[in-house]
Amino acid sequence: MPSAADRLALMVNGEARAVAPGTSVTDLLAEIGLAERKVAVERNLEIVPRSQYATTILCAGDAIEIVHFIGGG
Q1: Where does the source fall among the domains of life (predicted)?
Q2: Are 50 and 2 in contact (CB under 8 A)?
Q3: 34, 43, 53, 65: which could join 25 in a potential S-S bond, CB 3.0 to 4.6 Å?
Protein backbone atom coordinates (compact mmCIF):
# COMPACT_ATOMS: atom_id res chain seq x y z
CA MET A 1 0.00 0.00 0.00
CA PRO A 2 1.39 3.45 -0.90
CA SER A 3 2.49 5.63 1.99
CA ALA A 4 1.17 9.13 2.57
CA ALA A 5 4.41 10.46 1.08
CA ASP A 6 3.54 8.73 -2.21
CA ARG A 7 0.26 10.62 -2.55
CA LEU A 8 -0.30 13.79 -4.57
CA ALA A 9 -1.71 16.88 -2.89
CA LEU A 10 -4.42 18.76 -4.76
CA MET A 11 -7.43 20.92 -4.05
CA VAL A 12 -10.96 19.65 -4.68
CA ASN A 13 -13.70 22.27 -4.34
CA GLY A 14 -11.39 24.36 -2.17
CA GLU A 15 -10.42 21.53 0.20
CA ALA A 16 -7.05 19.79 0.37
CA ARG A 17 -7.12 16.18 -0.78
CA ALA A 18 -4.43 13.57 -1.44
CA VAL A 19 -4.68 11.01 -4.24
CA ALA A 20 -2.48 8.21 -5.50
CA PRO A 21 -0.19 8.92 -8.46
CA GLY A 22 -1.93 8.01 -11.71
CA THR A 23 -5.39 8.95 -10.44
CA SER A 24 -7.71 10.01 -13.26
CA VAL A 25 -10.76 12.25 -13.03
CA THR A 26 -12.87 9.06 -13.28
CA ASP A 27 -10.96 7.57 -10.32
CA LEU A 28 -11.41 10.72 -8.26
CA LEU A 29 -15.16 10.82 -8.90
CA ALA A 30 -15.45 7.14 -7.89
CA GLU A 31 -13.43 7.82 -4.72
CA ILE A 32 -15.76 10.69 -3.83
CA GLY A 33 -18.85 8.65 -4.75
CA LEU A 34 -20.15 10.75 -7.63
CA ALA A 35 -21.54 9.45 -10.92
CA GLU A 36 -19.71 10.79 -13.99
CA ARG A 37 -22.96 11.55 -15.80
CA LYS A 38 -24.19 13.92 -13.09
CA VAL A 39 -21.18 16.21 -12.70
CA ALA A 40 -19.11 18.80 -14.50
CA VAL A 41 -15.39 18.95 -13.72
CA GLU A 42 -13.00 21.86 -14.04
CA ARG A 43 -9.23 21.30 -13.74
CA ASN A 44 -7.04 24.37 -13.28
CA LEU A 45 -9.78 26.69 -14.60
CA GLU A 46 -10.46 24.55 -17.71
CA ILE A 47 -13.52 22.34 -18.23
CA VAL A 48 -12.62 18.67 -18.65
CA PRO A 49 -14.79 17.10 -21.35
CA ARG A 50 -16.63 14.05 -20.01
CA SER A 51 -15.09 11.99 -22.82
CA GLN A 52 -11.64 12.72 -21.31
CA TYR A 53 -12.36 11.91 -17.64
CA ALA A 54 -10.69 8.48 -17.85
CA THR A 55 -7.59 9.78 -19.62
CA THR A 56 -7.10 12.99 -17.63
CA ILE A 57 -4.50 12.11 -15.00
CA LEU A 58 -4.33 14.42 -11.99
CA CYS A 59 -1.07 16.09 -10.96
CA ALA A 60 0.19 17.49 -7.67
CA GLY A 61 -1.08 21.02 -7.19
CA ASP A 62 -4.12 20.65 -9.47
CA ALA A 63 -7.17 22.69 -8.53
CA ILE A 64 -10.30 20.66 -9.23
CA GLU A 65 -13.85 22.02 -9.07
CA ILE A 66 -16.72 19.55 -9.28
CA VAL A 67 -20.30 20.67 -9.80
CA HIS A 68 -22.88 18.01 -8.98
CA PHE A 69 -26.21 18.26 -10.79
CA ILE A 70 -29.26 17.38 -8.75
CA GLY A 71 -32.61 16.84 -10.41
CA GLY A 72 -35.88 17.85 -8.89
CA GLY A 73 -39.03 19.71 -9.52
Answers
A1: Bacteria
A2: no
A3: 53
